Amino acid sequence: MNILLIGSGGREHAIAWKLSQNPKIEKIYCAPGNGGTALEKKCQNIKEGSIEELINFAKENKIHMTIVGPEEPLIKGIVDRFNEEGLRIFGPSKKAASLEGSKNFSKEFMKKYGVLTAEYATFNDKDKAMEYLNKCTYPIVIKADGIAGGKGVVICGNLKEAEKVIEDFMVKDIFNGSGKKVIIEEFLEGVEASILSITDGETIIPFISAKDHKKVLDNDKGPNTGGMGVIAPNPFVTDGVMKEFIENILKPTIKGIKEENMEYKGFLFFGLMITRKGIYLLEYNVRLGDPETQGVLPLMESDLYELIEGAYNKNLKNLQIKWNRSHSASVVMVSSGYPGEYIKGFSIEIKKDITGKVFIGGGVLEKGNLKTSGGRVLTLVSLGDSLEEARICSYKDIKKINFENMYYRRDIGLI
Ligand code: AMP
Ligand code: GLY
């Protein structure tokens, strides 16, 4: 079997690594992949290509299944196009991908099906938004409706900050259209949790929980990033929290997917806020998370491809996922300066006696050498019988990795 995997991050390296363990899979073409997939068993990087070029590639190379990593092609409708061509692809339809592609669509969906989420109001008109801001109690959260490269959510401490955000999003149009519509949302206080899952449109099977570390500096200080580290399972997701999540979020979500006739065979990510008032859904992502995937897949005992095939055949209700009983602690190593400006192009050295697994994100293979090519360069994942053991392993191993301008948080997994 040949697989086509779309994407270029650490998440895709982790997916490719996990898929490569399936004995029936011969080759995984990664479009475009990165320096990690270039070196991974069974993997071959190919050109990124447009949707139409990928369709041609899938036909010419007898691709058994295409798996989509990032949200962008999903929101553009890659799944619908592949289906029109009779090609097998794993991911939500364009309509279902709006659960991530439009915050307003997703909030309306949550409200309609009774998924517990923060109160909100939507605005297309700048003056009305400004008027509303005068009546709000602060802090308040402002969100651009469309995708904005992870920068479309701002927590505003006061009216002045909020007015500036509305000005930037709606008038200056800093997201090229994505912020013309905004959601103004109640601020929720609590701890966050990520739950990845797989769905066939009728059943959702949640993965073990994870905890991202979004801020760039220790003790959750500094600006937000794509993720500086992850631990799994998330110690705040107790059995009680999981139960509440299933009742108040997962079940109404699947009901909505069915009633709206969304064609959804793919991964689904729930971004949760655990508060004193209950478990709230902050957002859906219609894909796996990064770096959550790197931290969670190494704990999965089941074969990932069999689950994908099971979901594709609408057979998830008969399947279960087996997890090994250990913990993972993953530290993301970034180019210093990230999420702002940084220099790249430095050699990455990884000593042979490293015990954890390294998933490359922003790294390319140049003449046989790994070089930094992005902000989040790599994720180092270690497993242990306890969270503490896993994090000690990661911080020991990290000394065996080196590149110029390297930076990482020292407190991943310290609760
Ligand atoms: P989102 O893309 O909606 O998940 O937002 C990105 C991040 O903003 C989340 O991971 C939270 O840290 C934060 N956030 C979003 N919505 C809220 C909210 N209603 N209250 C507090 N924090 C939020
Ligand atoms: N780690 C959050 C995300 O992938 O969006």
From TrEMBL:
Its cofactor is Mg(2+); Mn(2+). Its EC number is 6.3.4.13. The keyword ATP-binding applies. Residues 107-313 form the ATP-grasp domain. Pfam families: GARS_A (PF01071), GARS_C (PF02843), GARS_N (PF02844). Keywords: ATP-binding, Ligase, Nucleotide-binding, Purine biosynthesis. Pathway: Purine metabolism; IMP biosynthesis via de novo pathway; N(1)-(5-phospho-D-ribosyl)glycinamide from 5-phospho-alpha-D-ribose 1-diphosphate: step 2/2. PANTHER family: PHOSPHORIBOSYLAMINE--GLYCINE LIGASE (PTHR43472), PHOSPHORIBOSYLAMINE--GLYCINE LIGASE, CHLOROPLASTIC (PTHR43472:SF1). Belongs to the GARS family. This is Phosphoribosylamine--glycine ligase. The lineage of its organism: Bacteria, Bacillati, Bacillota, Clostridia, Eubacteriales. The gene is purD.
